[in-house]
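Structure ticket #2291
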Amino acid sequence: METFLIKALQLILSLSILVIVHEFGHFIFARIFKVRVEKFYLFFDPWFALFRYKPKNSETEYGVGWLPLGGYCKISGMIDESMDKEAMAQPPKPYEFRSKPAGQRLLIMIGGVVFNFLLALFIYSMILFHWGDTYLPLKNMKMGMDYSETFHNIGFQDGDILLKADTTTLDRFGEDCLRSVIEANNVTVLREGKEVVIPIPDDLMQRLLRDKKGFAALRFPMIVKNLPDSLSSAALAGVHPGDSILSVNNEITPTFTDAVIALNKHRGQEIQLGISRAGVHDTLAMQVDSLGKIGVMVVSPTEMYDLVTINYNFFQSFPAGIEKGVRTLTGYMNDMKYVFTKEGASSLGGFGAIGSLFPATWDWEIFWERTAWLSVILAFMNIIPIPALDGGHVMFLLYEVITRRKPSDKFLEYAQMAGMAFLFALLLYANGNDIVRYFFQ
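Resolution: structure written out below.
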């Protein structure tokens, strides 16, 4: 329960920041062009609000709704999710959105997207300034990686060290690395000291989405860091910090993953644990508990392999942050083509999937990293030309600019309703996928 609450709190805080910044983008451009903003709300407020405040001599009511599905900025004279048909039936007033030139209305509509993307660039810059950029180079992963069944099926073997995707050198493990592998014709790996070229099929991403097995995990030995409980099975059997786990009941376990799998096979049983201590091999008898644990903490791969850290001063952080934000955006745009496949649609997720991005313990670096990433995604998703999204309004405004003909209010009302119905159905589908994955997979 505590883990759920920590993840939920991070999700709500992150989305609240993004929604406020997004709506402020609309708000500030509206005020620049002297368009009245009637409401500025975090979350939605059907029937009632948790908090509302209207400053003296202000045209805008500020508030917090009770339904945490986003937020809104109600702009006078605009057909939006409020569907205020009564106001739209009145003659246009000078302070209304519909009375302004198309160019001004266009800037008001893209304001939210622009502010979300600028926020992402700023957060990325400040992350690099405060924490730097620390990563584990692929070439330093001496034992390579353990690959999923999907990648085994196309020729990868556990222990392969990634070298190149076509002619591009692969430097670090992550989303960019996976994209490079998927889009390559051939991938070169180092296997037992020799370079091996693996052909990549055109439908690798579809296979990955269908199989839901993932890409790869870092391969490293299981070395004991410490024994938190002096009465644990391992401690009583004589395991010491620095011991390497070599086998479980004579089953060779060269990696941490192998050892975990082997221990899980013997839950609640007594085993013979093969270890290496200062180059000397030994076997110790001990009990595995019902969870497959023996009571040890292990050395993480970041402690046993050489990391690289790039530090940035304040001024250097901004171009680096911008580069990272642009790379994140272009990568996500490239991934969108897979959403329109059968496999991609089944992989869509809702609030559960987004919440799972955050760790079970609070970590400010990870929190801001995830918030920046979500800010990029929110900016991109909002500019998609679907009625009810900013991109839908932009699409109709561009039509007006090009043809010099404004779509009728009735048409815009119907388009808004159709867009809202589509988005509501998509919301149900994505969150339904979360429920199916949680209970049935």
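Closing remark: DSSP finds 15 helices and 16 strands in the chain.
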